[in-house]
Design goal:
The protein is of the alpha/beta class and about 650 residues long. It contains 22 helices and eleven strands. The structure holds guanosine-5'-triphosphate and magnesium ion.
Length: about 650
């Protein structure tokens, strides 16, 4: 078995994530044991756990055809099979985007989406929801032959009439480059499949790695799903150049537009110069070869707008060979380990950061709320104990007086409770207003409106107008949502203040929330659209219209996705804002009842005062214990969230 740094780091990352899941499960078990859990809290924990368990790490490989993407994937991830797993050969080999992953609910198989689905407007993401649209080939993971022969399917092409290819948006008779591909009988060769998913239990895939192999650059333009969704959302994108071809114009364009450009400026974008073995020349010295490689790096870097040390020179082919033959010297010469190191350095720490940021607030909020609940319980108990201790040696009158006092407290609180109910109803109204701006229904209406406006216009001008209006509308909806959110927050702030003054409830400051991050996501999509339509005002050919419609559908499905996330986040926020007040009000009401009950009993002499006091002292002890437990749990979660391995823990585990 070859162990690359990447798989080791990735394994360490998985251990970290599993640790976090385990600690969360401990917290949940504790809540259940202590009877502190409720349906709302449990749902929030479940949601966090699901998110952590589904966590994926996406790595995409992009290049012009035949630069060695598939070979590089084989070399980095699949050398353990001792063979070339993904088909890699001269000429165009990978004909459709191919995703490698492991989903344990599905059989070990190759799922293929027929190219004919391009005649519909549905995106590949939508098709993923409909298993019956895919052709499935099962294979046997224990047999490399079985796998390799199944994987050959991604290279399959077919010959279709030119009109069909045009309908799929794969052929433009007016484009001179396309016209060259026309066969004498007016047919065109096109890929048989639109998309492939290879599902198999490789250790890295099992841990959540998802690899995307793409066909040459022309596929990037025809499948907007790639440019609007998969590439910008990949945690790492490797852009591969080859030493034997230099950098072409289309490569510069794609690099600038889809990978490094200001639009998707983010971590994990790596450029690779492959096939450096072509420069190994036995008649030259090591120094001369190194100089040759550096010269190529400098030229390529210049064209891509990078520093030469930002491009990683490798030989995927020799790297694979070296791993298969366990030839350490050749592996070093292939410089593959350096690329793997860079990839894991770019990838893992920033990924960890994202996961941590996404979970930390939610976990802390849950734990804080548990803490608030325990404190409220403790405070009530202490008051009750004081009250009872004050009764020691007093006569019946005092007890009666006391009972009346609690009754008045209770009545007052009931008035407060009515106010709370009224607040709840205003709160739901406000939330409803918020969802008229942000809700999915409203968005779907906008999408339909824009789609119709686009279809009725064959000119880029009309289409551009419809799209501009779409984005303006979305932006204004987010801004209105922000105003509404602010209003809700102010109302809740005031309510917490009032309840804390009047009923001695603990004052909680509701967390702030803004739609800024969704505005940013939309701005990215808007920029993508502007770049796409950066063409003179003119009429659209059929093929262009097909592509434009596809582009819009993909764009719309991305916008819908942003909205789905926004809706989910807002719902969580609304819960987080009202939940502490709800649970405190419930707790306070219960305490008043208990107080009244214990004084009543003492008044009626069913309980002796001392019995009751010692009973409550035991409850006090157990709440102190719970508070202590919670402190420890909080510490464990803090440790689990931390970046570095816990030395004591790993020693304990060893
Ligand atoms: N000399 C040399 N050849 C390589 C190297 N990497 C890949 N090749 C060869 O280049 C050709 C193309 O490699 P692929 O892996 O199929 O390239 P690809 O980028 O996946 O190409 P498409 O799937 O067609 O987009 C194959 O014949 C490989 O053997 C390398 O490092 N050195
Ligand atoms: Mg390939």
């Amino acid at each position: 078995m070859t162990h690359s740094t990447l798989s080791e780091q990735f394994a360490a990352y998985s251990v970290w994530r599993t640790g976090l899941v385990d600690t969360l499960c401990d917290y949940r078990t504790w809540l259940n044991e202590q009877e502190l859990n409720d349906a709302q809290i449990d749902l929030r924990i479940q949601h966090l756990l699901d998110r952590l368990r589904d966590d994926k790490l996406n790595v995409a490989f992009v290049a012009e055809f035949s630069r060695g993407k598939s070979e590089l994937i084989n070399a980095i991830f699949f050398a353990d099979y001792g063979q070339r797993l993904l088909p890699s050969s001269a000429g165009r080999t990978t004909m459709c985007p191919t995703e490698l992953l492991y989903d344990e609910t599905k059989p070990t198989s190759l799922q293929l989406l027929p190219i004919e689905t391009r005649s519909t407007d549905a995106t590949t993401t939508e098709y993923k929801r409909y298993a019956d649209e895919w052709t499935v080939f099962e294979f046997n993971v224990d047999s490399s032959e079985s796998m390799i022969s199944a994987f050959k399917e991604v290279s399959r092409t077919k010959r279709v009439p030119a009109e069909d290819a045009t309908r799929y948006g794969l052929f433009d008779p007016d484009d001179p480059d396309d016209a060259m591909n026309l066969n004498p009988d007016n047919t065109v060769d096109i890929p048989s499949w639109r998309y492939a998913i290879i599902n198999f239990p490789h250790p890295l895939l099992k841990q959540g790695l998802v690899i995307l192999d793409t066909p040459g650059l022309n596929a990037i333009g025809t499948e907007p799903e790639l440019t609007l969704n998969m590439l910008p959302n990949a945690h790492a994108v490797l852009f591969i150049l080859a030493a034997d071809t230099g950098v072409t114009k289309s490569e510069i364009d794609v690099w600038r537009q889809y990978i490094s450009g200001t639009r998707w400026k983010q971590k994990g974008r790596l450029a690779v110069l492959n096939k450096i073995d072509g420069l190994w020349d036995e008649l030259k010295s090591e120094k001369e070869i190194a100089r040759e490689i550096n010269k190529q790096l400098a030229t390529s870097a210049d064209l891509l707008g990078l520093h030469p040390n930002q491009i990683y020179p490798v030989s995927a082919h020799k790297g694979l060979l070296a791993k298969v033959n366990e030839d350490a010297a050749l592996l070093e010469k292939s410089r593959l380990p350096e690329l793997e190191q860079a990839l894991s350095d770019e990838l893992i720490p920033s990924k960890k950061e994202i996961v941590r940021d996404n979970t930390q607030n939610e976990i802390e909020d849950l734990i804080n709320n548990s803490g608030i609940l325990l404190e409220a319980r403790m405070q009530g108990l202490i008051e009750q104990l004081e009250e009872l201790r004050g009764l020691r040696g007093r006569n019946e009158d005092v007890v009666e007086h006391m009972m009346n006092k609690v009754k008045i407290d209770k009545e007052n609180f009931e008035k407060g409770l009515q106010r709370f109910q009224a607040l709840r109803s205003v709160f739901s109204q406000q939330a409803n207003t918020l969802f008229t701006h942000l809700g999915m229904e409203a968005l779907k209406v906008e999408v339909t409106k824009t789609r119709e406006a686009m279809i009725s216009s064959n000119f880029t001008k009309g289409i551009r107008g419809a799209m501009d209006a779409f984005f303006v509308e979305l932006k204004s909806r987010l801004l209105k949502s922000d105003t509404q959110i602010e209003e809700i927050k102010n109302m809740m702030d005031a309510m917490y203040q009032k309840f804390s003054e009047e009923h001695n409830l603990r004052q909680v400051t509701p967390p702030a929330f803004s739609t800024l991050r969704y505005q940013k996501e939309l701005a990215k999509l808007e920029r993508a659209y502007k770049e796409h339509f950066d063409t003179p005002l003119n009429m659209l050919t059929n093929e262009k219209m097909t592509l434009t419609t596809k582009f819009f559908e993909t764009l719309a499905s991305r916008v819908i996705h942003v909205y789905e996330v926004a809706n989910r986040d807002v719902e969580n926020w609304l819960k987080a804002v009202i939940a502490p007040m709800e649970s405190q009000v419930r707790e306070h009401q219960m305490q008043l009842l208990r107080r009244l009950e214990s004084i009543k009993r003492i008044y009626k002499a069913t309980d002796t005062l001392e019995d009751r006091i010692s009973e409550l002292e035991n409850v006090e002890k157990s709440i102190r214990g719970q508070m202590q437990d919670l402190k420890i749990l909080k510490q464990h979660i803090g440790n689990a969230l931390a970046f570095d391995q816990q030395p004591e823990e790993s020693q304990a585990a060893a």
